[in-house]
C-alpha cells in the first residue's frame, strides 16, 4: 500500500481530492482518441483575462419571536464580488475591477423584516445598510445559503458584464474572444454564449471513469485532456427539473508536476464552459480556449511556498481575496455595531 498526501491544508472545508463517480452520461465531442493534447500557447488575439471571485461572510445570527410565540431564523451577512484584470502577455500591471460589497439581512419568508440601517457614532466610519432577503423554510443553514446564493448571482452578473460574446453554433467562424473570464467554481446555470470559463479547484466528482482517469496522472505541465460533454444534474436516468436542461463542456489541465509525496492528481484542474443543447461538436471558439488554457493557467498558478492551496488557487485570486476582505470591514467592529443597533432599536430585552 502506498500512502500519498492530499495537498490542501487540513483547515479547509474538505480535501482537494475525493472523486465520487459521476452517475450520468459523459460524451466524447472533440475526438475519440483519449490522449494528452499539448497547449498551443496564448494567441495575441486574447487581450484581457479577468479572474472573478466572491467571498461571503456571516456577521450575526438572529432569533425572532413573533406575537404567537413562534421562533424564526434570520442573520446579518455580507458578501463581496470582484475581478482582477490582467494582460495574458504581461504588457501591463494587473488591476482590480468591480469590487462590490453588499450587506444582507436574510430572514425566514414568514417573518418579514425591514431594511436595517446601522449608523455609526463617528460619521466618518460610514453607514452599514442591510437589505432584507427572504429564504424558504426554517433551516438553520437558511441564512448562510441565501447569502451564498446572492453572491453567486452577482458573480455571474459580473462575469457576463466583462466577458466577450462566445459563438457556439457549428457553422460559426473561429472567433477567439478578446476578453476571457475565469470564474471560480463551475459556470452558473443559464447565461450561456459568453466567454466565461469555470475553473474547479477540487476533484470531487469523477467524470472520466476507471478506464480513463489514468491519463490525468500522465499529463505533462500545460497539457490537457480532450473536451467532453455532460448534462448538469444527470443522475443516471434521472435528471433534476432545475438542472437537467443545462449542458457543459469540460476538460482537465495540468498546471504543474505533483511532488513525489502528493497524490498523482495534485496539480490538476478541471475547466468547464456552457455547451449548446445535445451538441455533438465543439465550437471552434471553445476549442481555442481549451488550447490556450494550459499555457494561461501555468502562468497564473500559485506556488506552494506562498499559498497552501497551490497551484489551483490562482495568484490573482489570492490578491482579490485580500481586497474583498478589506471591503467588508473588520468583523469585530461590525459585530459591535450590530449589537449597538439592536439595543438602540429596543429589540433586545
Automatic annotation (TrEMBL):
<dbReference type="Pfam" id="PF09376">
    <property type="entry name" value="NurA"/>
</dbReference>
<dbReference type="InterPro" id="IPR012337">
    <property type="entry name" value="RNaseH-like_sf"/>
</dbReference>
<dbReference type="InterPro" id="IPR018977">
    <property type="entry name" value="NurA_domain"/>
</dbReference>
<protein>
    <submittedName>
        <fullName>DNA double-strand break repair nuclease NurA</fullName>
    </submittedName>
</protein>
<feature type="domain" description="NurA">
    <location>
        <begin position="47"/>
        <end position="326"/>
    </location>
</feature>
